[in-house]
Amino acid sequence: MELYLAFKIVWWLLLGVLLIALAVMVGMDMGVGTLLRFVGRTDLERRVVLNTIGPHWDGNQVWFVLGGGAIFAAFPLIYATAFSGLYIVMLILLWTMIVRPLSFEYRSKLPSARWRNLWDWALVVSGLVPMVIYGAAIGNMLRGVPFHFSWNLTSYYTGSFVSLLNPFAVMCGLLSLALSIYMGGVMLAGRTDDVLHRRATQAAKWAVMVALMLFTIGGAWVSVMDGYRLVSGPAPGAAQSPLHQVVSLSAGAWWDNYRAVPVLWLVPALGYVGMLLGLSAIRAGRTTLAWWSGALAWIGVIGTAGVSLFPFLMPSSTDPSQSLTIWNSISSLRTLIWMTGFAAVFVPTIVAYTSWSFYVMRGKVSAEHVETDTHAY
To answer: Which of 3, 22, 289, 305 is the most exposed place for a label (fewest CB within 10 A)?
Structure first.
């Protein structure tokens, strides 16, 4: 049982790693898309913007697939409950992710300004919406999702799409969007010159300042909202189900882990350090440092949510005692062992080829390059 408990913790950490990688890499591409019409004022400028992420955006999508696959295999009860109950949200996310590659590939097929403007706005929407959904999803985990189980573990969603757009979730969505725009702005600032560089730098500055404000408001909000507290249940390494536990609601309960282990305050501190260092770096024109600072900020922000929620993954607002935790929603020990083996091979491989791709495609993207390269977007 001790081995099973260890693998549960490992996969909770690995899930966090995948969510952070998704936010950093996919979020950066989404941020560039969101900024497309605001940084690029002419067709040629927009083509330059698109070609800064042209060699990378489709490869970065692997983190999105990997995250979904990991939840499906390692946390099947989370996958089944979320993907069935939050069906409308998943469809919106799916359609924006379908439109996104179409926009990249179809935009330059015709010279018509109306045609290109249509796909430009599709890129803006398909960059903005997924990042708002991403942040709002984490916010709703802290608020609790309206679902419950029957005696045979059939899940029933009792909420509505509108209920998911509660003020706290919307704020978390805007925080996610702000960090995405920051990362996109830093990427553009580092790979463009002149007017595009200046506009991207300005966008990144404003975005990280908004993120700092929203992260602070979110922390204060969480400190007074009703949090979930696991009162009793089977031992963490024993066989469990969400039908055999007792969970209570209490104001400020999401801070319990920080009170119990004060060193965990370093996690939200990382978020602040990353954002403040990023603001300083982008003002100094050090875009590489600003990019890594943004990654550090994402680690701090997502890590803060994870530490606050632990051991919960998907709390139930309908019946708190049927909340899903890392103890009762995870796969079998054998599945986790196999999954760990695959992760040990594929995650370093993905990191290696992504790093190689960025190294090979390093440097500035100029208007002259875009106009003369027949393979450019």
So the answer is: 3
pLDDT in tens, 185-231: 999 999 888 899 999 999 999 999 999 999 999 999 998 999 999 88
Q: Mapping DSSP to helix (H, G, I), strand (E, B) and coil, where does residue 126 land? A: helix
Q: How many angstroms from the chain centroid is the CA of residue 103?
A: 22
Query: Residue ranges per domain, the chain?
Result: 2-372
Q: How far apart are CA 73 and CA 335, in angstroms?
A: 8
The tokens describing 197, both together, are 């560089």
Q: Tell me if the bond preceding 311 is cis, omega within 30° of 0.
A: yes
Closest to 39 (Cα-Cα) out of 277, 198, 225, 186: 198
Separation between Cα atoms, residue 158 and residue 317, nearest integer Å: 10
> What does the alpha-carbon distance between residue 151 and residue 117 come to, in Å, rounded to a whole number?
53
Residues sharing a CB contact under 8 Å with residue 31, sequence separation 6 or more, in sequence order:
127, 131, 180, 181, 182, 183, 184, 185, 187, 207
Residue type, 334: R
Whether 277 and 284 have beta carbons less than 8 Å apart is answered as: no
- Domain covering 2-372, topology: Formate dehydrogenase/DMSO reductase fold (1.20.1630)
Q: Which amino acid appears at position 146 of this protein? A: P
